[in-house]
Give the backbone structure.
Amino acid sequence: HIKKSDSSCACLTHNREKQYILPSNAPVDFLVALGVQDENGRIFGTVNLNHIQPAEYGNIPWTMEGEGKEVLVVHTLCVRPDCRGKGYAKEFMAFAENLAKEKDCKVIRLDTWEGNEPAKKMYPALGYRLAGDTLFFFEQVIWETLVCYEKQMK
């Protein structure tokens, strides 16, 4: 599903209109996907994907087993405000799930801010289980409660 397009990035073509770009020179445990909407390269969103579980994840009663590279963590899924409501977040999640399967991950874990009602509706609709919530020191800047979800890949 991921094909190399040049020396700096690998592109996954989702359909004729959109591409998801992964830097090919990124460390194995850090990937950033950008959603490119049109021939002008307009970006409709981004998501960070890696195997790094924040320390606060230790406070969550996960029910699906996985450690280290067996877990794909979805961080900071963002869609541009003028592109919301068009299914792009769901496409990013499908992309993440396909990547998790290709990398033989057992589970996907993610978190979202407790006030993000659209995300809190979307994740369960996509088959993610609510695992719990905990206080996070987000980006070492602000304390906030994040709600955590998980989904089995195998």
Summary: Confidence is low (pLDDT under 50) at residues 1-20, 23-28.
